[in-house]
Amino acid sequence: MIRRKKRDDFYNSEAWFRIRYIVLRRDKGKCQLxxxxxxxxxxxxxxHIYPRSLYPHLELELENLQTLCRxxxxxxxxxxADDWR
Length: 85
Fold this sequence. Notes:
The protein has about 80 residues and is α+β, with helices and mostly antiparallel strands. It has helices at about 1-10, 15-25, 70-75, and strands spanning about 45-50, 65-70.
């Protein structure tokens, strides 16, 4: 329960909203793996290349973030540290 609260706090923080927007703009609103965008009817997510669970000190580092669509992000999960940019 406490772990879930910390996760929710992070993803609802002003710092996350700000950096997330910067990443979406930098990546031109396209999945860096498959190239799809919202016009293709998919949900975009900002992915931590090195997962927060293992590298919490990188959670707000611009160079550790990339835009992925939901299917690509779910496939990557926290199992891989592939940078698709």
